[in-house]
Amino acid sequence: MNRLTGLGLGLLIVLGGSLAGLALFFAWASAGRLSESEYAQIVVNDAYPLSAETDEFSVVSYNIGYLSGLTNNQAVRPAASLYETNLAAAIAALAPLNPDIVALQEIDLESRRSYQVDQVAALGDALAYPQRAIAINWDKRYVPFPYWPPAVHFGQMLSGQAILSRWPIVEQERIVLSKVASKPFYYNALYLDRLAQVAQIELNGQAVVVINVHLEAFDRPTRQTQTEVVLALAEDYATRHPVILLGDFNSALNRDAEGSPRSIQTVLDSTVFEPAVPLAQLSDAAQATYPSDRPEFKLDYIFYTPASLELLEARVITAAGQASDHLPLWMRWRLK
């Protein structure tokens, strides 16, 4: 073997070792710590009482942005004090409303980016919710995002969606929606699952279905597909139960390029559901939910079945301030 051949062989060995190491790291990083059977749970805390029978109910939908405020997805590492301040702000905004049900998106349970705080437990305990349905959508040992510098990587992730309730959550289902087909396998392997979290909640002895969603943010065709699937699911449930469909749909009538299809229009065209805000007002500045410091787009919605639910009132909750990059929504209704 001559010197050049030996050098080439050495480089191949080093390269092969590096690739093998990268493959092992990827396999470890993309693996979750929980089993799939643990991704949908109903947690009951008997320290807090269930609600007494009543004629009126209320619900909040809130993309809480893991309490990172306006730093959400930015290449920064906020101090733990920011999350503590934002948690207190979210509690202060929700407590006076005393909603029967709170549907949360983008909430951390044990993640490095939010200093390992179980935000579902923190909110649930502070607001005294006895029933909590949790649907995990991001369970990874290491997420290398934002990409640079490495010090701001999310790292270990356990995050998802949650429904807090003062009424019995009889059952829930975690439905995984389609991923972005144009993205490479390694992106999808490390990215979150988009979910429809379906909870059946017993109000005054009647089953009401709450469907909590957080749809694709960056790819319009995928978001459109997810929207169609979610609407079909919701309309099917509506043949048997009152249904509330709510969450972050990541689509606004004034956000996409003019003339391009807007996925939220698919739900607005439904003959089964109505938005909590009249259609003519959806584009009003007062209905915008994002970004929370200068709301311009309505990405968050509450839809209901008018055949079985009577809308009484609905509004954007501006008191939440910048605890998240989204503002929450509130709706009050009666059962028909």
UniProtKB/TrEMBL annotation:
GO terms for molecular function: hydrolase activity. It comes from the Bacteria. Residues 61-326 form the Endonuclease/exonuclease/phosphatase domain. One of its GO terms (cellular component) is membrane. It holds the Pfam family Exo_endo_phos. Keywords: Hydrolase. This is Metal-dependent hydrolase. The lineage of its organism: Bacteria, Bacillati, Cyanobacteriota, Cyanophyceae, Leptolyngbyales.
